[in-house]
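Support reply, case 0932

Customer input (verbatim):
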Amino acid sequence: MEKTQEQIQQNIALSYLRRYINLSMSKIPRITPESIGLGVLLALVGGFLDAYTYVSRDGVFATSQTGNLVLLGVETAQGQWQQGLKHIPPIVAFVIGVVVAEGLKHPHITRTFPFPARSVLFLESLVLMFVGTLPLDVPDMIVTVTIAFASSVQISSFRTLVRWQFNSAMVTGNLRTAAEAAYTALVLHDRQSVLQFFDFTIIIVSFLCGAFIGTLSTLHFGIKAIWISSAILLCAMLVLNANPKTLLTKSCS
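Our regenerated output:
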């Protein structure tokens, strides 16, 4: 009888423990295509890839086409045509990636791939994993074009942070949004602007950290350092828990 009573008490204690764990887990916000958590991971990858290609692939930016356009103009103006023209293929690949991202919204595609958010992250991770296997004698242009295509699909697919438009692989627009939010928060004392400022500051700092990590890891591990960014994307895919239609419908509206 005493043993039975002890078992009952243990069962009651376990029941309370399960309820506590379930209640605690229910309060943890899900990582969705619009959440800060996913935005941080994507910003890390964006900064990493730009640093990786700039350090290891002859000063070309794979994700920041603003940098490529500037270098194209500077180098051609100086008569360095061969050096300047190398910035054109990544720009073209970026445009093609945007077209592919738009194509993923088509009903026929969404019926075949019902989880587009995870599909984008998985495919981008595979592409970056493949890039890390390429030998050093592969032309830099092939690598940068491949990365530019993959990153543009990411940028075009994930365009909303909480409920604000943002860029997961470039800083200029995010910096402008953060500055505007800071002004509105200070002058108009708007609470939402305070939250917006902190959210975008986190994304900007994450991009900087990604560039820092990308530079150090590329200098240390060489071309295989890109596998780090591939692993980050796989982690993002695994933790992503959202409505599959959210990515390519609400975030792009």
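We compared this against your earlier run and they match. Two observations from our side: The first helix runs from residue 2 to 27. Residues 242-253 have pLDDT under 50 and may be disordered. Please reopen the case if you see a mismatch on your end.
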